[in-house]
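Structure, all two chains, one model.
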Amino acid sequence: MVDDDEVDSGWPADGEAADAEKNRPTLAPPQPDPKRAPEPATKPKRPTPAVLRLDSASQFERPDPSAVISRRGRESLLGLADDAPDDLSLDPAAEPSEALDLVAREAERETPIVPLPAPVPPPPAVSSGRIVEPVQEMRERFSLGDYSGALVVAESILEDDPSHVEALQCETSCRQVLEQMYTARIGPLDRVPFVAVPPEQLRWLSLDHRAGFVLSHVDGNCSLDQILDVSGMPPLDALRILYELLQQRVIGFR
Amino acid sequence: MEKVIGIDLGTTNSCVAIVENGQPTVIPNRGGYKTTPSMVAVTEAGKRLVGHIAKRQAITNAENTVYAAKRLIGRKWSSPQVKNAIATSSYRIVEGPHHDCRIALRDKEFSVPEVSAMILQEMRVIAEDYLGHSVQKAVITVPAYFNDNQRQATKDAGEIAGLDVIRIINEPTAAALAYGYGRNVEKTVAVYDLGGGTFDISILEIAQNGVFKVIATAGDTFLGGEDVDARIVDWLVQGFKDEHQIDLRQDRMALQRLKDAAEKAKCELSSVRETEINLPFIISSGRNEALHLQRALARNVLEELSSDLIERTVDICKQTLDDARLEKDEIDEVLLVGGMTRMPKIQDAVAKFFGREASKGVHPDECVALGAAIQGAALVDESQEMILLDVTPHALGIMTFGSYFEELIPQNTTVPTSRTKIFTTSRDNQTAVKILVMQGESEKAEDNEVLGEFILTGLRRAPKGQVEIEVTFEINADGIVSVRAKDLETSLEQSIQVTATSGLTRDEIKNMIDSAKEHMVERRVSEEFEGLKQEAQKLAAEIEKLFPQVEQIVAASDFGREAIDKARGIVTRARAAIDKKDTAALKEHIEGLSRTQRMFKGVVAKGQ
């Protein structure tokens, strides 16, 4: 019989997440809650990216990671299906490849701006193509540093069970890490962005309505911080959109 | 002489003014706007937003954004106005511990004066930033119909915001004061005030001795510019639905943008005949294709959309004149107050009704705050004659048999004052009477506000009408009302002192003052740090830009290399202080950065 207090879910508690991220190498893989009934063998509601296993060869063949947030990263993060082709992006180098967090990890090797994801532990025995349990998949993705994917899985678990402790902790941790990553790429949040595209050309860009909403707050007076406040979106979503607008050179800084 | 700020604490917008060198002036906020939305919000991260920034997220964070708190201030939980607000507000209104109402924002409950205090604090900061020193004293305006509790609650809000509220004055009176400033006027004036959320019409008599008497006042607390914005939003939503079969109301982000655009278009149409509303990427269709909204709105369409609203204001004007038993031609001047009165159609409607063009002598957005500032300056400057006399905003009296209201002190009586009336018992063998002290103008007691009650016992048993009781109302210079009832036969006496209450205890107010002070200190510290950070970052960037040139010039000498190393050290330490948010250290490093930057500039200039 295991005492409740002794159970370590493996996810940092609220407020401890940032510290926990610094100590990522010692972060134990999440343990299943012994009291919890076995997870139903259902797939997450939203499509999630495949678990990526990094090998050294594929890492070094990727394009400049700082210039890219992939389509898959975007979709996995927000579940927004966007059929528009990526090549509408103004940055010709912006070829989709990986989720931001996975790509970002490479960038951190030279300039560590955000906490490094944990070293990849030996992956659990999951044969390719087999449907994995959502909780297990969430843990795997997190331990592999695929925070976007882990977040999507955590959110899908929470849709079914909003009080799922492990999923809640994972969601918080993923959001914190991803927010740090995007903030590091965008730069100081007290900077005031401006719209770099003439108004008559705006409508020809490939943006969704959420990006349109964030863009409507870019008026040359509001700082990034203020835009995050007024967007009414979770900070991670707003940061992601601002980063993409910056990458596509729709907004800029003077 | 101490500066006194005048604050127009409006339902939708607030404004602050001072008198500088004898000239009343409105102080713009940091964004350069002369009015600040009376909105307060708490973000998901627990950050407090006040003013424009709160307004910009009012729809996407509707549950945690308070607007029109003025409709609730000083009201009891059971009042119909509170019930109405509960039904129409997007934020949560809950019952407070003293039958007052509280507003729930995220995980905390705020009293209404506390929310108003946040707005007042913002106005105070605007004034302090402008003046460069702290401000304590203030005159705040309230609608003429506000009762004592509402006035006291507004005063409490000022106190929580760290202000010494030296006077509360009526909004139409303030507007008339701004109009009459520097002129010797003796007129009957109509003040037509159509703001963002409320409409008020007041008839005032301006006498030469400095008495501004409100003869009649009426209005609609749910009628204003926001209703016009809502009509434009409806028009845009319907047009979009017709074209794309998509209801934009279902998306909060789209709705927020529509509302912002509608207000902007409405303002533009006061000066141009047509304006274009352009909202790219307003919503994504089912096929994940972003759709754009682009529509031209003509002034005549707007006038058509809002014609019934304008008509409603005219009807209220008509009713108010009837109540005041005045004819239109007895009005010497019409003053337009509130941003909505810039709309040409409204100006036409007012001119048509009163049979005269409205005065252009007052600024619609600013005159109330200006009037408050004028009054404030007069109150602290002994050389100036007193401009306004304090008057009772509402009649005071008691409830009599049959639930009627018997007035003892009429509305607009100059204080201090005292009035006495004799009453008799209403039943045979009545040994006690209940004195119910009330405030209001209605003949029916139930329509007026109860201020307090007490019982006079020990009356002689006698047929009704034989025992005489003398009731005396007294208001002292501080506005405190005392009511005394005396059995004229036995000289037995009972009395009560009525003090207006905002629904908060002294302890609660004290705690709120401490909390507001704490918030203010945090805010100032954070602002100071941000300012220093920006300065340091700018200097560091300039120094780093000059490094290659300086290195090239001085690298040959050991002294030069040492100086460059030192400079690098200063930049590194300044950045470390920024990371640690160490304000004191950053201040020191800025001096070092400044010296380095000057030195580098000098080296580069000499080297060229």
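Confidence is low (pLDDT under 50) at residues 1-131 of chain A.
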